[in-house]
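Please annotate this fold before class:
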Amino acid sequence: MTALLKSLLAASEKAASIAQVCRQEEALFSLLIEEKRGADKNKKFLQDFKTLADVLIQEVIKHDVGEKFPELQDHIRGEESNKFENGLGETVVVQVCPTQQETAALLGKVLNRKQAAAELLAAAIHQEVVLLDPALDNVAVTISTESVAVWIDPIDSTNQYIRGHGNVMPVDGIYPSGLRSALVLIGVYNRHSGEPILGIINEPFFQEELPAHRWQSKYHWGISYEGIHLSSLNRPMLQASPCVVLSSNEKVMLRKALAPLYGERLFFASGAGYKMLCVALGLADAYVLSEGSTFKWDSCGPHAILRALGGGIVDLSEALKAWRAGQRKLLPELTYNKPVEGAVGADHWANQGGLVAYVYREHLEAVMATLAAAADTF
C-alpha cells in the first residue's frame, strides 16, 4: 500500500501539472473545451463541460499506476470517456503513447493540428515526478492490491476550472468559487466490501506564484484500513461556533431545516470534493447535500481521508431512515463497488440519496437529529 500511495501521489502531482498547463496557456486553454451531451451530462448544471485536461489526467493516472501495478489496470475507473472530438469532426481515442513524440502526434489530431500546444501537453504527460516527502517513508501498511479498485475524478468542479478565477477571496477560510475548488481526486476502495481505504486530494491551484502567475499544488492523503488510520492531515480542532458548507443551489427547505442548528453560519462553495476538503480541514463541521448530484468518483478519495481522521460520509436518505427507526449507532455510509440498478449513463454511479460528510460523530448526530425533526422530508 505504501508503494501504491506513492505511485498515486506522483500521478496526482503530474495531473496537477497538466491542469496548470492547460489553464495557464490561454491559447491552449481555448481549444480544450467540449460540451458533454446525452447520458454523460450532469443534470445539476445547465452546461457541463468535459475538457481535454480531464481526459488526459484520467488516462495519465491509468497509464502510470497501471504500469507499476498491472493487476489494477482493469480496475481503475474515471468520470470521463477517453474519446474526444476535434474541430474537424474526427473522433480520437486519447491515450498515453510509448514516447513523448507519439503522444504529441496523437494530441495534435485532437487539437486541430495545433502542434505546439500538443507538444506542450505531451511534455507534461511524460515528465518524471519525484516526490520529496519524508513522511511517506514512515507509512507501513500492507493491503493486497488484488482486492482493491480505484476511482478517479480528474478535475472536480470542472465549471470552476473553466470559468473560475484565481483571485476569489475566502469567507471564513472557505472559497465560495474559483480555481481553488478545482481538485484532482483519487480514491481506492475494497472491491468486495465497497469501503474506501485510501484517498488523495490534490489542489492544483493551491497558491499562485507572483509575478510569474504560476501555480503551486498541494496534496493531502489518508488511509483507513482495518483499524489503521493514517493521514497527512491532523484531526481538526473543534470550532466554537458550528457551521456547515452547502452547494450554492441547495434546496431552500434544507437550508431552513438546518437554521436551528447553524443559524446564519451556512457557507456555500463549488465542487463536491472541495466541500469535503473543507470538512477535513476543519473549516466546516459538515457538508450536507440533499440531492443525488455527486458520484462515486467525487466522494471516494475524500471519504477515505475523512475516515482516516475519525469521520466519514453517510448516505443522507438511508441514514435518516435509520435514525427515525431508532437505529442510530451505525449509520449507513457510502460504498463504491455497486452501480445503481436501472440508472442510465453517469447516474449508474450517483450517490442518489445525498450525503453528510463529517469528522466528529457529534456533528453528524446534530445534523441527523435536526433534519429528522424537520417538517420537510429529505
Observations:
- The radius of gyration is 20 Å.
